[in-house]
Structures are given as structure tokens and as C-alpha cells.
Amino acid sequence: MPSMNDVKEQLAAPKVEAPASDATPAKAKREPVAPRTPTNCVCGVPGDKGCNGAKSTRKFAPGHDAKLVGYLTREVVAQRVTPEVALKDLAEKSGNSALLVGKLKSAIERETEKADAKARKASVEAAAAEAKVAEKADAVAASTAASTE
Q: pLDDT of 78-119, one tens digit each?
């Protein structure tokens, strides 16, 4: 173990500096960017949950790209708009953003499958209710026939 004097000598020794050729260059200063003026959001979602003219320095106000995808998905599932028209509308508004178009495609597929499953479940439940009513009607008819005999 080194003595305290050895440690003091090491600390007092001159430090070795790297030659100037190995030094990293100083970072170049960036030019200041002119501030952008806020413009209206391009999502254009109507209704109470719509855009209402939100201002942003970007194409969409924060979260409005997702709001537009959700709105177009609901319109397609309700069959008020075809998927092709919805995809074209989103591509125009987003500047052909592949990520947003892909997000809309998967959302349409997922929500359409959910709506189809809900419709199938409702038809099965309706058929079961019809069968139950028919069974009760048969039972009533049988008991009425038995009591008249």
C-alpha cells in the first residue's frame, strides 16, 4: 500500500496533456432558426371533439394526427366513407406519411373485425332469444291442448 507521501507526490506531479493534433475540434455554433408562425391544424375533425382551429407550428396540433386517424376509422366502420377515400384523405393531409397511413390501415382492419364480431354475437343472441320464445310458445300450446282434453 502506498504511503501518504507517495499519494501526495502523485497528485502534485504535472499532468500529461494530449497533443494538439489529438484534440477534438470545437463544435460549430448553430445558426439561430427563425421562429415559425403558428398556423391552423390540418386535421379538420368536425364535431364537439374536433379541432376547433387549434394553432400549431407543425402540420398537426399535438395529438390531432391520432384524432384524425380515429375519426376516419369510425367513419369507415360506420360505412359513411370507403377505406380508399379515408386513406386518400389522410395521405393528403399528412403529406403522404407512411406511418399515419399504416396506422389508419391497421385501425380500420382492427375496428372492422371488432364490429363484425359484435354483429355476429348480436345475431347469435337474437337467434337464442327467438328459440326461447318459440319453446315457451310450444310449451303453452302443449299445456293448453292437454287441459282441453
A: 999 999 999 999 999 999 999 999 999 999 999 999 999 999
HSE-CB at 148 with a 13 A cutoff on CA atoms is 6
**Rounded Cα–Cα distance for residues 130 and 111 (Å):** 29
Q: Whose CA is closest to 73, among 91, 60, 86?
A: 86
Three-class DSSP labels, the chain: CCCHHHHHHHHHCCCCCCCHHHCCCCCCCCCCCCCCCCEECCCCCCCCCCCCCCEECCCCCCCHHHHHHHHHHHHHHCCCCCHHHHHHHHHHHHCCCHHHHHHHHHHHHHHHHHHHHHHHHHHHHHHHHHHHHHHHHHHHHHHHHHHHC
pLDDT in tens, 2-12: 788 887 777 77
**77 neighbors 112 (Cβ within 8 angstroms):** yes
- For 97, left (φ over 0), alpha (ψ -120 to 50), or beta? beta
Please name which of 78, 100, 77, 76 lies closest in space to residue 90, comparing C-alpha atoms. Answer: 100
pLDDT band of residue 31 (cuts 50, 70, 90) is confident
